[in-house]
Amino acid sequence: MTPLTELAAAYERDGYAIAPGALSQSRCIALCERLSAIIVRDAERCLADRRIDLSFFARFVDSSDQALAFFDDARGDLRALPVGAWESRVMRVGHALHAADEAFAALLSDPNVGVVSRALMGDAAHVLTSAVIYKQPRSDNVQFGLHQDSWYLTTDPPSLHLAFIALDDMDEARGCLEMVPGSHREPWGEPLTLGPSGFVPVRRPEAANLPGRRGNDLSREAFAGRVATLPMKRGDVAFVDGRTLHASGPNRTELPRRALVIHAALASSRLSPSSWLRTPQEGFAKLGGE
Predict the structure, then answer these.
(1) Domain holding 221: CATH number?
(2) Digit-coded pLDDT (tens) for 13-27
(3) pTM
(4) C-alpha–C-alpha distance, residues 96 and 275, integer Å
(5) Helix 4-14 and helix 114-121: axis angle, to 10°?
(6) Enclosing domain of residue 192
(7) pLDDT above 70 for 34
């Protein structure tokens, strides 16, 4: 594991830091197996209750305190498929995996994940979300242009942090992370709120203009020469400031690309009222074994 002093220096300078081999290969495989079990349970529930809305954004708010699968339902009726085939349509599972499964919950206090995140944040923190971003083989469905996660999970004062855990090997062909080093020190984009069919800007006069911005879109050309591609091995962890611009392309390979993302914020920060996320009745889980 990379020494904390090195991680902290990179995190301060670049807005992210990579810890190679923070989790073992076997532990990542076990997490993927637990993930598959969660998907099966959710699929069985959806088959048993046809009133459940399977559309992508309809599931967001209900996922604040449980683990729901987000499916690609554009290729026909999911309910016509056997339960075992539903995972091949999954695009993410979240947003409270740590509340649904003890194996995911254990990462919050893991010395190479939650404890490091807590140390990099510098004060008491709690977990907002935990979710797996699931890129299916040979699929364009899940890819992201340059963005700041703080658009979607805005806190006051700003303190969003994420731990990105590679559950599979990933390179550029498999949709690895791309980062703009130092962008965490540049002006924010405009925060977003969840509308009926996706995220829309929260209009506010003080919203900053980033270079190349058109609304909440960012031109890659505006950051030519600044974007760093970050291949990762299974078990590597990227610790990222929520204001750091990052992206990832589609998965062009024959293998799945799964990444667990844990979002946290300082306990002293307030979640924006416009956020899609709802505070669980029992409150947010603590980060770093506090």
Answers:
(1) 2.60.120.620
(2) 999 999 999 999 999
(3) 0.94
(4) 16
(5) 50
(6) 4-23+101-271
(7) yes
